[in-house]
Design brief:
The structure is a single chain. By secondary structure, the protein is of the alpha/beta class. It has a single domain, classed as Flavodoxin domain (Rossmann fold, 3-Layer(aba) Sandwich), CATH 3.40.50.360. Helices cover 45% and strands 17% of the residues. Strands 1, 2, 3, 4, 5, 6 and 7 form a seven-stranded mixed sheet that branches. The radius of gyration is 16 Å and the shape is globular. Bound molecules: flavin mononucleotide. Flavin mononucleotide binds next to helix 1, strand 3 and strand 5.
């Protein structure tokens, strides 16, 4: 891989009980295997400590992911590809991820978020609980930022198993079922596809006459 096509990938996620974290790790690993430089970043928790402590799964996951670095605006500015992960919350992205998004007004105002590749994945409790509405809601922000949205579509065999062309999604059955092989393979494919589009863009920008 030459200098121009080594892309930088930020996987930025929120996860209360670990489902989205598993997808985020799989996306990060897949991007690394494509030769990308990767930052895996969690967004800051906003819920009060008492709320986290009152839910055993939430508290345990917070403890287990203490080592994960928190996302900062610099991670977005640095990245060529941003992969966002969030649980579905009443049909929408989690407030924690939205709050992080909202800290990036200064980057947006300078045009520093434009032309980056964006894609998103989610986890919800039920199969009709808002997978698509969550991903499409996040995409509203991608439009505002002038990003290059790269959905997985039905561009690979795995997509006919996972079944969500908007982005990888997982049904957790209220946290009972972690992401399985299909979801992990789907998010890995989604990450590889985003990297490959970013590499093509980088090659195009580096081409003579551009
Ligand atoms: C406040 C709140 C709202 C939620 N809203 C939805 C929802 O609209 N649809 C759904 O299917 N699941 C909903 N869930 C369940 C989570 O999306 C689901 O458990 C998900 O797998 C959690 O991902 P995580 O383990 O990464 O935190 C909600 C959970 C919480 C705490």
């Amino acid at each position: 891989m030459d200098f121009e096509t080594q892309v930088k990938v930020a996987v930025i996620y929120y996860s209360a009980t670990g489902s989205v974290f598993k997808l985020a790790k799989a996306a990060a690993t897949a991007a690394e295997k494509c030769g990308a430089e990767v930052r895996l970043r969690k967004v800051r928790e906003l819920a009060p400590d008492e709320a986290v402590a009152s839910n055993q799964g939430w508290a345990a996951h917070a403890e287990q992911t203490q080592h994960v670095v928190e996302a900062a605006p610099d991670d977005l500015e640095w990245a060529d590809v941003v992969l966002f992960g969030t649980p579905t919350r009443f049909g929408l992205p989690a407030a924690q991820l939205k709050q992080f998004i909202d800290t990036n007004g200064p980057l947006w105002a300078q045009g520093l978020l434009a032309d980056k590749v964006a894609s998103a994945f989610t986890s919800a409790s039920t199969s009709h609980g808002g997978h698509e509405s969550t991903l499409l809601a996040l995409a509203n922000t991608f439009y505002h930022w002038g990003m290059v949205i790269v959905p997985p579509g039905y561009t690979d065999e795995i997509q006919f198993q996972s079944g969500n062309p908007y982005g990888t999604s997982h049904t957790s059955n209220n946290g009972e079922d972690p992401p399985g092989d299909v979801e992990v393979d789907a998010v890995a494919y989604q990450a590889r596809r985003a990297v490959s589009v970013a590499q093509a863009l980088a090659r195009g920008r580096a081409a003579p006459g551009m």
